[in-house]
Design a protein that fits this description.
Helix content is about 20%, strand content about 50%. With about 200 residues, the chain is of the alpha+beta class. It has a domain of about 140 residues: lipopolysaccharide transport protein A fold.
C-alpha cells in the first residue's frame, strides 16, 4: 500500500515537469512554423489612398413616415455622399403602406436626393408586393415625403390574375383616400390567366 502511494507521487512529480515542457514546446512550434504574410493579403497603398479620397459608408439605412402614413425604409450595401445627394449600390426599399400592403423594391444602384426627398432606384429594378404583384422596370422613383412610387419607363411582370406590361406604373394614395392604388398606364397589355 505504501509502495502504491509512493509510485503515484512519483508519477505526479514527473507530470509536473513534463506537461509544462510539452506546453512550452507546442507554443514554440506555433511561432516557429508561423507563415509569413503573403503579398495577396497585404492592402496596397494605392487602394488605401483611394478609400481615403472617396468616403463611403457600408450598410447604410434610412427610414421615415410619408404624408400618407406609409413607413419607408431604405438600405444600401455602400453609399457615397455627393453634395446634397447620396449615391448607393445594391439599394433596397421596403414600404409598409397605411392599409397594410408591403412593397419591396431592389435595384443594383440608386441615388437619394435629400433636398427633394426623392429616392431613385436605377438599373434593373425588381418590385414585389404582398398582394401578389411582381414586376421589373429599368428603375423606380420613390417620393419619400408623399409615399408615391413611379416606374422609370416600361414595366413587365406578374399579377395575381395573369401577366401584364405597361408604359408606366404609379403607386399612390389618392386625395381623400387612406389606401394606395396601383395605376398602370401608357399601353397596358394584360394576359388573363383564369384561376383553377
Amino acid at each position: 500500500m505504501v509502495n502504491d502511494d509512493n509510485l503515484y507521487s512519483q508519477f505526479v512529480g514527473i507530470l509536473k515537469i513534463t506537461l509544462p515542457l510539452a506546453a512550452l514546446a507546442l507554443m514554440s512550434t506555433v511561432f516557429l512554423f508561423a507563415r509569413a504574410p503573403t503579398q495577396d493579403s497585404a492592402i496596397p497603398y494605392a487602394e488605401i489612398e483611394q478609400l481615403a479620397q472617396e468616403p463611403r459608408l457600408s450598410g447604410a439605412q434610412l427610414s421615415g413616415v410619408a404624408d400618407d402614413g406609409s413607413v419607408i425604409e431604405l438600405a444600401a450595401r455602400t453609399t457615397r455622399p455627393n453634395g446634397s445627394t447620396i449615391s448607393a449600390e445594391n439599394i433596397e426599399a421596403a414600404i409598409e403602406t397605411a392599409d397594410g400592403t408591403h412593397i419591396d423594391i431592389r435595384a443594383g444602384g440608386g441615388e437619394i436626393d435629400n433636398d427633394a426627398r426623392i429616392a431613385r432606384l436605377t438599373g434593373l429594378a425588381h418590385l414585389e408586393t404582398s398582394n401578389g404583384y411582381e414586376m421589373e422596370a429599368l428603375g423606380f422613383i420613390a417620393e419619400l415625403s408623399t409615399g408615391r412610387i413611379a416606374s422609370d419607363g416600361n414595366i413587365e411582370g406578374l399579377a395575381p390574375f395573369g401577366s401584364l406590361s405597361a408604359g408606366q406604373l404609379i403607386i399612390e394614395t389618392p386625395e381623400g383616400s387612406t389606401s394606395q392604388v396601383m395605376l398602370f398606364q401608357n399601353g397596358v397589355r394584360l394576359i388573363y390567366t383564369p384561376q383553377q
